[in-house]
Design brief:
Elements: H1 3-13, H2 21-28, H3 33-41, E1 46-49, H4 56-69, E2 76-80, H5 85-94, E3 97-100, H6 106-110, E4 117-120, H7 132-149, E5 154-160, H8 184-204, E6 208-213, E7 216-217, H9 223-232, E8 243-244, E9 247-248, H10 249-258, E10 268-272, E11 278-279, H11 280-291, H12 311-317, H13 324-336
Parallel strand pairs: 1-2, 1-4, 2-3, 4-5, 5-6, 6-10, 7-9
Antiparallel strand pairs: 8-11
């Protein structure tokens, strides 16, 4: 491991608690030395399509901070579907431009500025059951519109580990070369999104990276937050999906940015996940000890789960710097102090693909 990696890792290991939302946002957007170096080399402005979700704000902020530290003058543009004054205020404070666009409208999409670097974050997951046509429109039709609009750009597009089948934990998780096996309309539409990007990548010789992410976590949301809240409220812990991945959102941001240098034709597929396969039973036990709470389990332990093996990506994008255990400690402290959450469960326990 390089010295700068050691220094950054030691910085995070020295943080005992995340004080408040401002401190959290500062850490989530902290660019690693490798991110700063990359953003100093990459030419041109950056646009983030669908930047109003859980990932977009801190990713945009990291790109802004990394570019400034690299001495690279560029526009960082966050595209939102509708006005959100609180988020717009943060973006303005961070030096990030905001554009509003219903990207399903080709006329509005055409009005977005031409940029060489595109991060695609738009997706529909929750509420897909009963709204399958909208799910497919957003997850497959919209990527085609975006590819046609930004055919001369490089694109880093978020996908999901849900395109893989359920696998036993002893497998080590699904690898990028493993065949997909999506379960349910959401996962199938996400595989459709990947295929649309693959088609247009080859049609236009447009370099693309597809990020299969499982599962980003910070203090306000994520698989670990879901489990911690169940334990804290003394509800039974669901073991039906008995294993899972977790990665600090800041690490996922850094890996996504570094994917800019690994776009390819046809698209490069990259798993993004933490290094460990976590046991729901063991993680719940850790939270029970941290909270001083009793522990109950409410279902039979499932034999397999949605799991990613991201080791190949680490060689290209760097290894996560925040261990899962540190993340658990931060989350437990945050919830015990009544820190805010986004109230958006990941629903990672769902096995039938219905969200």
């Amino acid at each position: 491991m390089m010295d700068k990696d050691v220094a950054t890792r030691e910085f995070f290991s020295g943080i005992d608690r995340i004080r408040d939302v401002e401190h959290l946002e500062d850490l989530l957007s902290l660019p690693t030395p490798e991110v700063v170096e990359l953003l100093g080399k990459v030419e041109g402005d950056v646009i983030l399509l669908g930047a109003g979700g859980k990932i977009g704000p801190s990713l945009a902020h990291m790109i802004r901070r990394g570019s400034d530290l690299a001495g690279k003058k560029r526009r960082v543009i966050a595209v939102l579907r509708r006005s959100r004054p609180d988020l717009e205020e943060n973006f303005a404070r961070w030096g990030i431009e905001v554009r509003f666009c219903d990207m399903l409208d080709p006329h509005q999409l055409a009005e977005l500025p031409d940029v060489p670097n595109v991060f695609y974050l738009a997706a529909m997951k929750f509420g897909t059951t009963g709204q399958e046509p909208m799910t497919w429109a957003i997850n497959t039709f919209l990527p085609g519109l975006v590819c046609q609009r930004f055919r001369h750009s490089r694109i880093v597009a978020y996908s999901t580990g849900n395109v893989y089948p359920l696998v036993p934990p002893e497998s080590g998780g699904s690898k990028e070369e493993d065949p997909p096996g999506p379960i349910g309309q959401y996962a199938m539409s996400c595989l459709g999104r990947e295929q649309i990007f693959s088609y247009f990548s080859q049609q236009y010789q447009m370099p693309v990276a597809l990020l299969r992410l499982n599962y980003a976590n910070e203090m306000r949301y994520g698989t670990l937050v879901d489990l911690a809240q169940v334990v804290l409220s003394e509800r039974p812990v669901d073991l039906s999906m008995a294993y899972f991945n977790a990665i600090w959102q800041g690490d996922a941001n850094a890996m996504a940015i570094r994917a800019l240098q690994h776009v390819a034709v046809p698209p490069r597929i990259l798993n993004i996940a933490g290094p460990k396969i976590l046991s729901v039973r063991e993680v719940a036990g850790r939270f029970a000890r941290l909270f001083g709470k009793p522990l109950r389990f409410g279902s039979t332990e499932g034999p397999d789960a949605l799991l990613n093996d991201a080791r190949a990506s680490y060689k290209l994008l760097g290894e996560p710097l925040v261990p899962e255990e540190k993340l658990m400690d931060w989350i437990a402290d945050w919830l015990l102090r009544g820190g805010p959450t986004l109230r958006k469960p990941t629903m990672f326990q769902v096995r039938n693909g219905k969200f």
